[in-house]
Predict the 3D structure of the following.
Amino acid sequence: MTLLNAAPRVITVGTGLLDEALRAQAVATVPVEWRPPLPGTARALERVLSDPRREAANELAVGRLVSARPHLVGVRRASEVLDAGTFLHAGPPITWERASGPMRGALIGAMVLEGLAADEHEAGEALAAGAVTLSPCHEHAAVGPMAGVVSPSMWLFEVRDDEHGGTAYCSLNEGLGKVLRYGAYGPEVLDRLRWMDRVLGPALAAALERTGPIDLRSLIAQALQMGDELHNRNRAATSLLLRELAPAVVAAAPAEAADVLRFIGGNDHFFLNAGMAAAKVSTDAARDVPGSSLVVAMARNGTDFGVQVSGLGGRWFTGPAGVPDGLYLGSYGPADANPDIGDSTITETSGLGGFAMAASPAIVRFVGGEVEDAVRATRSMYEITLTEHPAYQIPGLGFRGTPVGIDLTLVARTGLLPVVNTGIAGRVAGTGQVGAGLVEPPVEAFTDALRALADLSK
Amino acid sequence: MNGLPQAVLVRRGAYHDSVALMRVSRALSELPGVQAAMVAMATDLNVSILRELGFGVQEAGPGDLVIAVRARDTDAAVREADRRLAASSSRAHGAAGDQPPLTTRSAAARGPADLVLISTPGEYAFFEALDAVEAGLPVMIFSDGVPVESERLLKELAEARDVLVMGPDCGTAVIAGAGLGFANVLSPGPVGVVAASGTGAQQVTCLLDWAGTGVSHVLGVGGRDLSAEVGGLSTRRALRMLDDDPATELIVLVSKPPDPEVARALEAEPPRTPVVRALLGEGAPDLTQATEQALRALGRPVPEWPSWPAWRGTRPAPERIRGLYAGGTLSAEAALLAGGGDFVDFGDDAYTRGRAHPMIDPALRVEALGRAGETDVVLMDVVLGHGADPDPAASLAHAVARTPATVVIALIGTEGDPQDLHRQAAAFREAGAAVFTSNAQAARHARSLL
């Protein structure tokens, strides 16, 4: 016991007076900037924190999250993974009736693409009549950006976790502007999807057979050091992936290679979907640890923002999706914005995106703000996360690992909500992307989950 | 009320600690043109005080901040309140990108620390204390109002992690010369103290200091530690620590009589170091006598305990004793020795919800003094040291001088304390009080006046 050997260095929490009294005696202190927890959470916090399983459960869960080794192993048609008659979508469960404009637009586009409807009216009627089953991507080991609609003919990235053996899927990225995931379904959108179906998918499948598994953990780590935060900026990661794929694409599909490489190279977000599958397979490794307060999914369907928690199985906890605050394209403005949508918050859940903003000074121009804001955002997220990522590091913070592993109890205690970077979809079906920015998750999704965890506490 | 305009604003969910709010209230009240001002969290206690001051507060809860002013220019007073509140909460905002720690967990992860001192409102202290124990850090919980189940859980975890939990409701500690919480300036010496009572430990160590005997360490354990529910886990650990400490030649254990089972557990592992017990309660030696025992055990002389008699004579026929105490143990000791009277412990949970401790905030005792009548003997403690009111005479002596009651004060402090023991004694004596450094002597004196 060394406490009595020398004057202590003291962490002070609470009234500043007692900190001042120590300083007056030349005792070194570290004051905590303490605030009361979120209203109505004190009892739930007491129960969850008192659960004897919590500390070890969180250590296990976040340990699995950060030790995952995601590899891109191939591309597959969704029909190999999906039940017939099912369309996947982003976020927590949603019905056609409650679906927002971009979600409806994407579903309509998928109906037409699959030949299940001749036009948007027929598609809308069929969807309203329940012609297809709607199910969250997250419940099928998958994620999808923005509307996240996956229909059987679409190609999916297949990512495997070499550490824990899990597999996760994500659609292929179509590019920016008028695209299905932002709710657009015009002829140029469907033409592009058909080209992806016919040309891109098979070429990637053949190329990945030649390259063998591509180490996404290593690729993401490099991209962070090249200025990506892997949610709204994927330029470096896309370039790195292209470098891996290019020779194999040329060898595997010489006739299509120029088109395929031009398509990938021309889309700064091509990597996003592979990165999301990597994040999904990592967070899935952390699921279902009894007593753990670790958040394993944050996802939005354009109407609700939902979270899932390791110790709470597959239950969703939701609140209304907020409207992002950011910069708009062209003449679009806040009135054109749909509430927050997409599974891409899986990047934040795994310690990337908004949590890694300090790695990406370039992003602040895109979402509005100053470089200091990016650094501040990342630093604040260490206050609500369980650990620092051992491989994903931020050069500007002295190669500190990104904050990773959102802990419900820390969210409730600090009142800090996860920082989320996002694209902004137009609210009217068929519009496409109107901007990009930051969005605040609804607090009740986290406090409701905390109370549910308290009900299960020992 | 008089004709000055008043303003009452409720800021939902705005939080400031009670000491910061007391300082803002005091600064506002002293501004020219301000007749009354109170800035406080809207706890039941504070709302009732606001009502007595003539301020009606509508629909506000303990999580809301109230700014109430009566002044010639209420807008200016509210602006000044906001300016001071902003200044008091911005201390940690440094360079761009700096993030102050928001939890003990975060602070503990940042670098070397040896101890965590917690003084949040009691219902939240457990969260921070758990962080400390999980990080393997000893913790002092100054906060009161922590549920006993949480205390038990913390202390069990601390056993597994081999760390000391001092408190909850641990008002004082001294570790290797550093005074934590309410802490008198004590010289280093051979006596180690383990205390389930903060003010009890302060009384003992201040008297020892007067006798020229210093302390090695003062380890608080919290008032419930020796109860059956908690099982004396911290007391046993603190005794072991002092037993292993080469600087400690004698241990003084200050506590209420322990639960019999806990007492047996204590006796099963007797320290090698001699122990003097200051057990509070009927038939036991009082704190002053226990201190004298300790001095004799060390072979040191017992001095006269200083006192300053009242210069003004006793008022006509005092009839009863009113104890207005800041220290719970001192209050209990005095009540026992005075043999009757009305004793109020203003340091109790009921008076500290959303308010600073009476050793810091004199308002409630000033008000109680104002209600004392000429047949009362007011018996009260004034506790000096780090953390306490920087000049208690400045806040209390005026009320002492004004009361028609006879006033007897137990002045708990050392000559090294920042408030200046002799200056404080002189000021209270000047105001008409009799002043004693021994609480037991003060209580006996009060009794002798009846």
